[in-house]
Fold this sequence. Notes:
The structure holds 2 protein chains of 2 kinds. The radius of gyration of chain A is 21 Å and the shape is globular. By secondary structure, chain A is of the alpha/beta class. Chain A has helices at residues 2-6, 29-35, 68-76, 113-124, 128-141, 158-171, 188-205, 216-222, 240-245, 250-258, and strands spanning 12-25, 40-53, 57-61, 83-88, 97-99, 176-180, 208-212, 225-230, 233-239, 306-308, 316-318. Chain B is of the alpha/beta class. Chain B is built from 12 helices and 12 strands. Chain B has helices at residues 52-60, 86-92, 104-107, 114-124, 131-140, 146-150, 159-171, 189-206, 217-223, 241-246, 251-258, 324-334, and strands at residues 8-21, 24-37, 41-45, 67-76, 79-80, 97-100, 177-181, 209-214, 226-231, 234-240, 307-308, 313-314. In chain B, strand 9 and strand 10 (234-240) form a beta hairpin. Chain B is globular. Chain A binds chain B through residues 1, 63-64, 157, 159, 187-193, 195-196, 214, 216-218, 220-222, 240-241, 244, 254-255, 258-264, 266, 269, 271-272, 275-276, and chain B through 47-48, 158-161, 188-194, 196-197, 215-219, 221-223, 242, 245-246, 255-263, 265-266, 268-273, 275-276.
Amino acid sequence: xxxxxxxxxxxxxxxxxxxxxxxxxxxxxxxxxxxxxxxxxxxxxxxxxxxxxxxxxxxxxxxxxxxxxxxxxxxxxxxxxxxxxxxxxxxxxxxxxxxxxxxxxxxxxxxxxxxxxxxxxxxxxxxxxxxxxxxxxxxxxxxxxxxxxxxxxxxxxxxxxxxxxxxxxxxxxxxxxxxxxxxxxxxxxxxxxxxxxxxxxxxxxxxxxxxxxxxxxxxxxxxxxxxxxxxxxxxxxxxxxxxxxxxxxxxxxxxxxxxxxxxxxxxxxxxxxxxxxxxxxxxxxxxxxxxxxxxxxxxxxxxxxxxxxxxxxxxxxxxxxxx
Amino acid sequence: xxxxxxxxxxxxxxxxxxxxxxxxxxxxxxxxxxxxxxxxxxxxxxxxxxxxxxxxxxxxxxxxxxxxxxxxxxxxxxxxxxxxxxxxxxxxxxxxxxxxxxxxxxxxxxxxxxxxxxxxxxxxxxxxxxxxxxxxxxxxxxxxxxxxxxxxxxxxxxxxxxxxxxxxxxxxxxxxxxxxxxxxxxxxxxxxxxxxxxxxxxxxxxxxxxxxxxxxxxxxxxxxxxxxxxxxxxxxxxxxxxxxxxxxxxxxxxxxxxxxxxxxxxxxxxxxxxxxxxxxxxxxxxxxxxxxxxxxxxxxxxxxxxxxxxxxxxxxxxxxxxxxxxxxxxxxxxxx
Lengths: 323, 336
């Protein structure tokens, strides 16, 4: 695809270096004394290097609990990192705006749209007299009108609320937006409306997206590049075409073969046994070794190195089988 | 539609469900006819609020409070569900027709062990429930180390394993019909594939009929023999999966398919404009009219009937009163 090639010349906008985010769960006094439970560490994000260029959409896929939402939140600065660094526009600090999954829970039910947007505009330093016209401009950009200004979130449908969520993110004039499962709470007909809206914003304003989704069809449609995450680590990354046509990691292959596709007859499926292990005590070596159909001895001992995949210079896989 | 002459396990005729609310009745199901035969998998697809779950819950006699079946009949293996007493309904549930719900964590009782919950289903229907039987049931749904799992509480199992336990309970009394309400929506895609494989295997080996309610057309296309597309409490198109999805006739079905990303670069999504119809209002004519790209004044005049085009049923007047040759022409129109 042409856009993907021209993207290579674009400057990096967001970069993470060795990013880690751990969560610590301290058991209560009784549990410590009576059962001798120790403090548990959940390694949600465990050493991630990512790069997002200007005007690019990076799709981040993985199953629930793999740490993809945590990664998105660390990048915009909602969580401080445990280790590593986020660079935004060349500066060592997190940045960007966020669109959340649940448009019902992410808007304050007691604030009108005017208040929701006004708060962001105030933070941006827009003078009071300009806020109304700016709010209307934002609403019109996301397909709503000035009539919606004084309504409360409950008066909107799910799709309209997500539009308000998008307008709120745009109010800060970000160059980068993390969209965390932006359409998974919506019906399919509304899903397509929101996806088209996001695509349009990128075309017009050149915003970059980190699109977090478990829906591979959505990721394929929206992304220039894709990163596959498993238990806190990236296992494969590459251009959308290369990764979907030539998946190198056994996990990516299983994931791709598990997607139900419209009208396509059942192809040979790779069935994974069991479920994702807990991130509290991830397996040593390769994280995927407990479910991998092609496991070798080395996979249980040493963390796999990054290996380039032929055909696409940006396509990298972390797997011993390819080394 | 020509269909094989196998025993009909579910026959729904003219079903109407209404929820009484402060703002007046909400007509969730507005005249649904459905039939499912032995060994068949029927997919019931549509967006939220289109009446697919209300239809399933009526079959089980489980409609929540303000909801009521106001017209129609439901027969499960010949028994008239709406005329049964509470006691008779109880013995029908589980033994003849069983249900698998969307969220296994909220359908399993968190305070009881898996073994006890499985036992309950069997004893209620007066069936024997030795340890061996329970272990075998868990083995059948592919649960590793079943002896240990019997002593677990639900929270000790993953979502996929919980859903397997739900399916084991649903299968325990050998029902003829399984109603599955979004059984994989809460699960990850690799686990979803495992659960759908399991249900398909049960269908193939035992001839158990399955009604799968889903909002995911791709899942339906992989799993079902026939599908019925619902909109605003009515079936708008029904036929074999291949026919309906490869060659949709109703503008709503066409719209749904246009909304789904298809793993082809450069194919734009074509959303359906507007919102799902409000069922508390009186709908005149076609319920899809406000969103339909092919609407014309005639669509509003009369209620649309479900018309038989020869290979399927469509609720769109543009297919009415045509002979077969004209239907073929209309099909080309549908592909524009």
